[in-house]
Amino acid sequence: MKKIVLFLMIFGATAVSAARSHDISVLSFPYSVRALAAGHTFDPQGRTFTGNPFGSEMNYATFSSSFLPEGIHVHYFSLSYGNFITDLISYHWGSIEGRDEWGNLTGEYRAYDTAVSAGYRREWGAFRLFGSLRYLGRVAGPERTNFLIPSLSAGWAENGLCGGASLNMMDGKKRFNLYGGGFRGDFGATLRWESVPAGSSFHGGLSWKAAEFFTLMSGWNDGAWTAGMALSSTPFILEYALQLNDGDLMANLFSLSYEF
């Protein structure tokens, strides 16, 4: 009987696995430059809404591409209009090897996921509530699986402070996050604590609005240093972030947003 041996890649504090059909960590991938740059915390402007209780008040469209070692790359597109949000995600996890019971190589396959979701958000003063449902289709060589992923998040933001929580469920596994942040003048700090079946992790980062059109971000993510920048020229926002671990480049993330 042939067995498929699937290789995992550790990205920051999150094990991003295309192989494990029960791995909820796929939800932790930072599609947002601001989230990754600030220690893999969250995007306070809410243009990527996966588990993020802090939604943008603007209508917007945003696209991001992430490039990691081993041929892994992720493309993300989200669109927000009024109270409704949708996104489309394409995960390419590189190649996997098929081996028989004696360990002999029998083939090489591509592993990828495709996900689409729809969500609805409401605001009552400083309080925000958001819910979404995502469909994810996974292909890992000859194996094909499908998932429905519900998500619920709530947050509060007022007077330069914010806090919130989110809950995702995937195939019976839960992912819980607590968020917090503070902003004063041109400086900000963001914090996130995450709990998944494999364990918990803590993330933190800082941001500095150096000019009206230019913001710098940096953070520390499980022993890895993160940094990024954002260039804004209404209605466009161009962003870039990277993550380094012991001097090795672990991730590049580019993003372009349009507000309308």
Walk me through the structure.
The protein is mainly beta and 260 residues long. It has one helix spanning 33-37, and strands at residues 3-5, 9-11, 14-16, 60-67, 72-81, 84-99, 105-124, 127-140, 143-158, 161-170, 173-184, 187-196, 199-211, 214-221, 224-233, 236-245, 248-259. The chain has one domain (3-259): monomeric porin ompg (Porin, Beta Barrel). A 14-stranded antiparallel barrel has the order 4-5-6-7-8-9-10-11-12-13-14-15-16-17. Strand 15 (224-233) and strand 16 form a beta hairpin. It is globular. The model is unreliable at 1-22 (pLDDT under 50).
Count of spatially separate domains: 1
Helical amount among residues, as a percent range?
under 10%
CATH class division? Mainly Beta
Kindly provide the radius of gyration, computed on alpha-carbon positions and rounded to a whole number of angstroms. 18 Å
According to CATH, the fold-level topology is: Porin
Number of helices: 1
What is the string of helix and strand elements? EEEHEEEEEEEEEEEEEE
Tell me about the largest β-sheet: 14 strands, antiparallel, barrel
Query: What is the name of the CATH superfamily?
Result: monomeric porin ompg
Number of strands: 17
User: Strand arrangement, largest sheet?
Assistant: 4-5-6-7-8-9-10-11-12-13-14-15-16-17
Envelope shape: globular
Strand content: over 45%
Features:
14-stranded antiparallel β-barrel; Porin; globular; 260 residues; disordered N terminus
